[in-house]
Amino acid sequence: MADAVSIFMSVGLSEQKAKETLKNEALSSTFKKAIEQAQGLLGSASIDKTAGTLLYNMVTRLKDYNRLSFLTKYIVTRKITSELQLSAALDFIKSHPQENMDRLEFEAACGVGVMVTPEQIEDVELIIRKHKDQLLAERYRFNMGILMGEARTALKWADGKMVKNEVDMQVLHFLGPKTEADLEKKPKRDRSNLEPKLFLHKIYFLFVGEANTEGKSLMEQLRGEALKFHKPGENYKTEGYVVTSNTMNLLKKHLEETGGQVRSRFPPEPNGILHIGHAKAINFNFGFAKANNGICFLRYDDTNPEKEEEKYFTAIKEMVEWLGYKPFSVTHASDHFQLLYDLAVDLICRGHAYMCHQRGEELKGHNIPPSPWRERPVEESLLLFDRMRKGMFAEGEVTLRMKMVMEDGKMDPVAYRIKYTPHHRTGDTWCIYPTYDYTHCLCDSIENITHSLCTKEFQSRRSSYFWLCNALDLYCPVQWEYGRLNLTYTVVSKRKIIKLVETGIVRDWDDPRLFTLTALRRRGFPSQAINNFCARVGVTVAQTTMEPHLLESCVREVLNDTAPRAMAILEPLKVTITNLPTNAQVNTCRIPDFPANEAKGSHVVPFSKTIFIEQSDFREVMEKGYKRLTPDQPVGLRHAGYVISVQRVIKDGCGKVCELEVTCASSDSVEKPKAFIHWVSDPLRCEVRLYERLFLHKNPEDPAEVPAGFLSDINPNSLTGIECALVDHSVGKAKVFDKFQFERVGYFSLDPDSTSEKLVFNRTVTLKEDPGKM
Ligand SMILES: *[C@@H]1O[C@H](CO)[C@@H](O)[C@H](O)[C@H]1NC(C)=O
Ligand SMILES: *[C@@H]1O[C@H](CO)[C@@H](O)[C@H](O)[C@H]1NC(C)=O
Ligand SMILES: *[C@@H]1O[C@H](CO)[C@@H](O)[C@H](O)[C@H]1NC(C)=O
Ligand SMILES: *[C@@H]1O[C@H](CO)[C@@H](O)[C@H](O)[C@H]1NC(C)=O
């Protein structure tokens, strides 16, 4: 026995792998045979590790052992030197019985003797030229995977590393070294002379330049051919889509079922709260269906019973609806557990899946040798799968694996694993649960999805997606990827938010300083503003990282039209008007709700001899450039039609100004003052909360920026509470979440903490961009 272990190790297997291989008798005896044959051919030379690994991979995958010596010879004589060639060789052998196999045809199919010269590799230049416009526009944000993919197709048998080096080098040559802007991962802008007033235009400009969305609405961007997605039923026209002999037939049936309707789905895992990044996913999936008269499912990907909680299901649906979308139907992956199981049995029967006893640790990582159980008989796998389902194994003891190689070289992804955790919906009916790779494409297929839209991280799952549908001979939807949306100055991962809540830095998941969707709603962000933001970021394939102020400017834009004006004083200074005419008519004052459009209504506030202004709107000592009230400089009162002039400054015991006595004059009768300030009279008391960013740095998660971790980067002033602010009577009847523009102070939303005694307002955003403030 020990002998065999050392033989296996001598050709490059690890000790553990060697021992494991021994447990599989058929496999180890074939492997030994292959090694003997190889040794016979090599004479005194030894088998190197590359050949050893290829031999091992060959025996685990070869079905017809009569072909063993034939292939061994190709490996030993270095005619087959890569995994890619070996796969092609095995495929060829499988489809060509020994008796009518043409050697030349075989060698052509697996690239034997094909020498790819460095000059040929240099031809990747053609590929770069083909994409030059987009490359120039996106520079290093361009998805280099596209170039690599095309290069690999064009230079099928070339050494992958050499191709990669050449692509990298030529891109560098073409674009020049990365500039500071490239490193920032987004276009650099000059903010030094950004006039607040011009700001919105600049944003538009920026968005246009960046995503080429040209100020189009989301629906316009998503409609029709705008995205270059395939038409329903024309899946086969998509690059990379795999066509089998039955594809056209399945597509025809699919079209009969759906009548050519666009069908998409939003498939969140119900294990956390949605954040601003999800807003893009929701807008993309639901919006795409809506823009094309289609339907969109809300499908919970509830395949991990350990992580699911009722509250997440409810919260997700609520947020989808808040953003204005209605799912055609709410479904769950768990709705299909029985069907998925039946399909797994079918997959085993078709020889595309097997039961594997390797443990979690051994399945991790890439380029690990194939499982020794890969070629076990179908009957054996069926029996074991049945026992697995009946709970006859411990967690982690066995898995069902699919026989396929993923884009990134990972072999045989797991389809089913054991979990003895009751499921939120199916209780303890099942102790085996399907994985994402197994479930997702099948649920898409079952729901007759036409466009399976997902973020680019899933690009590497595309081939397994197509493979599985085809292996089961089912309708195969098309997966399309788009770039995810990130925001700076925040963290969105569930784990990190839990930390912030646990340490008391924020109150809960919906603390207004977070960028979860529930938090944004509490903070008073209108959903329309969030959707506008998504539209402006654009439906790009590129990843985008945005600064929060871009989102905030969308919020201002919506609230400018929807939040009526009111006046509030955060730090009051009492002002007594000594000469107010006693005429009753002037003791009230009419204020337009939207000064830009007076037709939208108005409200009346009292105006009496005692008013309050902001402490900061008075200075005892004049300073150059100060336009508001001083002992020598009058100031206008907004909406009141009066100009006031200081007569006497009254101070408290500590020398602090506590009251002003002023006289007033009608603004028609005096020189126009340099400024108008807001004020309140006979006000309501209220509490006001102001926010600044939660984090001091742009990328709190980046160790280069914040070495001690995101928890060390909290802005100590992220929340300011003002207990005794004053607000005018017009807000007295407001309901929770009603929003107002407090003149010159910001947009505010009435908080649920309000009582009949005391109103509580939280600031949604300031009126203008103010770095740091929110
Ligand atoms: C999907 O299409 C099949 C027929 O191809 C049909 O039986 C099934 O009901 C459809 N499912 C949904 C959710 O529309
Ligand atoms: C976006 O965020 C994800 C998760 O935090 C991160 O992995 C990714 O690198 C970020 N992308 C960019 C462009 O910053
Ligand atoms: C208002 O501020 C408090 C304190 O930060 C917070 O707990 C609450 O959620 C906020 N309300 C809204 C509507 O943002
Ligand atoms: C607010 O809206 C009015 C018209 O509705 C417009 O004239 C004004 O410029 C807007 N203000 C801002 C800051 O966008």
TrEMBL record:
It is an enzyme of class 6 (ligase). Keywords: Acetylation, Aminoacyl-tRNA synthetase, ATP-binding, Cytoplasm, Ligase, Nucleotide-binding, Phosphoprotein, Protein biosynthesis. Residues 261-560 form the Glutamyl/glutaminyl-tRNA synthetase class Ib catalytic domain. Residues 3-160, 163-252 form the Glutaminyl-tRNA synthetase class Ib non-specific RNA-binding domain. Residues 563-664 form the Glutamyl/glutaminyl-tRNA synthetase class Ib anti-codon binding domain. One of its GO terms (cellular component) is aminoacyl-tRNA synthetase multienzyme complex. InterPro entries: aa-tRNA-synth_I_CS, Gln-tRNA-synth, Gln-tRNA-synth_Ib_RNA-bd_2, Gln-tRNA-synth_Ib_RNA-bd_N, Gln-tRNA-synth_Ib_RNA-bd_N_1, Gln-tRNA-synth_Ib_RNA-bd_N_2, Gln/Glu-tRNA_Ligase, Glu/Gln-tRNA-synth. It holds the Pfam family tRNA_synt_1c_R2. Its EC number is 6.1.1.18. It is found in: Cytoplasm, Cytosol. PROSITE patterns: AA_TRNA_LIGASE_I. Residues 676-751 form the tRNA synthetases class I (E and Q) anti-codon binding domain. GO terms for biological process: glutaminyl-tRNA aminoacylation. Its main location: cytoplasm. It catalyses: tRNA(Gln) + L-glutamine + ATP = L-glutaminyl-tRNA(Gln) + AMP + diphosphate. GO terms for molecular function: ATP binding; glutamine-tRNA ligase activity. PANTHER family: GLUTAMINE--TRNA LIGASE, GLUTAMINE-TRNA LIGASE. Monomer. Part of a multisubunit complex that groups tRNA ligases for Arg (RARS1), Asp (DARS1), Gln (QARS1), Ile (IARS1), Leu (LARS1), Lys (KARS1), Met (MARS1) the bifunctional ligase for Glu and Pro (EPRS1) and the auxiliary subunits AIMP1/p43, AIMP2/p38 and EEF1E1/p18. Interacts with RARS1. Part of a complex composed of RARS1, QARS1 and AIMP1. Glutamine--tRNA ligase. Plays a critical role in brain development. NCBIfam families: glnS (TIGR00440). Belongs to the class-I aminoacyl-tRNA synthetase family. This is Glutamine--tRNA ligase. It comes from Sinocyclocheilus anshuiensis.
